[in-house]
Amino acid sequence: MVSWSEVGASAPEFAARVEAALTRAKHMTMATLRADGSPRISGTELEVRDGELWLGSMPQARKARDLQRDGRVAVHGPTADPPDDPKEWIGEAKVAGRAVEVAHDDPSHRFRIDVDEVVFTHLNDAGDRLVVESWHPGRGLEVVERE
After folding, report:
1. What distance in Å separates the CA atoms of residue 3 and residue 114, rounded to the nearest whole number?
2. 46-64: pLDDT as tens digits
3. CA 81, CA 97: separation in Å to the nearest integer?
4. What does DSSP assign to residue 89?
5. Whole-number Cα distances in Å, 78 to 28, 42, 95, 142
6. What is the CATH number of the domain that holds 64?
7. Which residues are CB-contacts of 29 (< 8 A; sequence separation ≥ 6)?
8. Where are the beta strands (DSSP E) in the chain?
9. Are 55 and 111 in contact (CB under 8 A)?
10. For position 30, what pLDDT does the model report?
11. How many domains is the chain partitioned into structurally?
12. pLDDT of residue 81
């Protein structure tokens, strides 16, 4: 189990860029697994609070039932096309892990994400290569640059 604060402690500059990309808009895309193992894509909102990543859901929503049955989840942050000047593109962030339901006082669902993987994709400073930065528990930060 790895919290968002542990990602930040391990790779602070990386975590700050990811968090900026994840929180620049409200709506994101989440992948869960249906009972038959096939993927389900849903809209979601992600909150960064108290060193943790949090998801919420309306009562008995299918995505919440998916996570109750199998907590594996992936969240892709808000996307944005690169502007005319690619150097100004903030990039895109993804987080994968396990959602753990946390009890609270209303019938909606609240899940904390235990982080297994964080990926930040952006362009290099010259704007001519794709840079994929990924962080995994135990391995830390890895960077791959592609043409």
Report:
1. 6
2. 999 999 999 999 999 999 9
3. 26
4. -
5. 5, 13, 12, 23
6. 2.30.110.10
7. 41, 42, 43, 44, 75, 76
8. 28-33, 39-44, 46-49, 52-57, 72-76, 92-101, 109-123, 130-136, 140-146
9. yes
10. 97
11. 1
12. 76
Q: DSSP labels for 3-39?
A: -HHHHHHHSHHHHHHHHHHHTSSS-EEEEEE-TTS-E
Beta bridge partners of 101: 111
Give the structural domain span for 75.
4-146
pLDDT averaged over the chain? Answer: 94
pTM check: above 0.90: yes
CA dihedral 35, 98, 59, 94 (to 10 degrees): -100
C-alpha to C-alpha distance for 56 and 39, rounded to whole angstroms: 19
* DSSP 3-state of 87: helix
